[in-house]
Design goal:
Blueprint (H helix, E strand, L loop, with lengths): L6 H11 L3
Length: 20
């Protein structure tokens, strides 16, 4: 979450969604 503020959080969301 908050990918707009922290890329790390954005990537974490992508992994959780199975995108990465």
């Amino acid at each position: 979450g908050s990918g707009k503020k922290f890329k790390a959080c954005h990537y974490a969301d992508l992994r959780a969604n199975g995108v990465i």
